[in-house]
Specification:
Blueprint: E1 5-11, E2 24-28, E3 36-45, E4 48-57, E5 60-64, E6 71-74, E7 78-87, E8 102-105
Antiparallel strand pairs: 1-2, 1-8, 2-7, 3-4, 3-7, 4-5, 4-8, 5-6
Length: about 110
Amino acid sequence: MLNNSFELEVAGNAMEPVLIEGDEIAVDIKLNPRTNGKDLAVIEVDGNYHICRLARFGRQLLMLHDNGPTVAIGEDRVKIIGKVVGATNYSINENNHSAANTMAIA
């Protein structure tokens, strides 16, 4: 791992079938995920880490899930940790933006 990245373990099933519980993801803290609903992001909300795609809606961010509900949250409550750049059982690249949302554990 590079100095600007770290790994997290996926917990929960809201990302299935893209990411499943137990997968490990690589997160680059120097890369900001785009808020266009395509990039996978790791964010912190109220002390909990989440993996999701993000979209902007006014002063809110939408947490987009493939296997769960869309959640609107005030951007003042969201800390963007970084962009997911890789995962076990899944390859993330510019041509494949499929993603969803789930919790992450350090």
